[in-house]
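Structure ticket #2291
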Amino acid sequence: MDSGMGGLSVLRELLALPYQVEFLYYGDLANSPYGEKSTSQILDLTRAVCHFFISKKVDAILLACNTATSAAALKLREELSVPIFGMEPAIKPALLAHEKEKIALLATAVTHREEKLQELKADLGAKERILHLNCDGLAHLVDQGDLQGARNLLQNILRIPKEEGVKALVLGCTHYVFLKNEIMDLYPEAILHDGNQGTVRHLANSLHLDRVSGRPTFELHFSSPEKPNGIRQFALQLLERGL
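Resolution: structure written out below.
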């Protein structure tokens, strides 16, 4: 699940695996963006989607949303009987790949402030090496397919790491993966890191998906009643080609 279209960047990688798994995707467009809501609101919204999944008798749930993971994963693991997987910004591999350098984390205000990220920074001893870039509004522009609006916002966001010479950028939201071309066009020296591949590997290994070889299938569900056919068509475009 995701607040909108961002989680499709993770689903796209899962669908490339040779495993006969049925994937159910839920994009909560009616309540997006999550990144500008309170922690309690995000927890309630994420819980509602998870209960939808439970009604469909799923075997596991992936919160393919960094904001939802930060705000809701720990609580939902206590409440629900199925395994709950989440996203983690690729901070550790970025720090290891750029020793003694600063890295920049592009994320929502919720992801930046939540305890999960603070604990990760403390564990890695990296509080002074992370430049926090608030990207509120960017996910919504991706959901709308507004590339020009996203580009305009990114131009302002990327001004800071460019001025400070910070080249390692961690994409701390699954939506931002669809903007890699725009980011590289605006900041050609940047080196991008995202957590999608690590999440997919962890999910596949934990659930032993390699035991069910074959072709995956998927269903798409969205909470927004607005132009459902158009939403589905846009989602399929993202799955097939990216923005």
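Closing remark: The mean pLDDT is 93.
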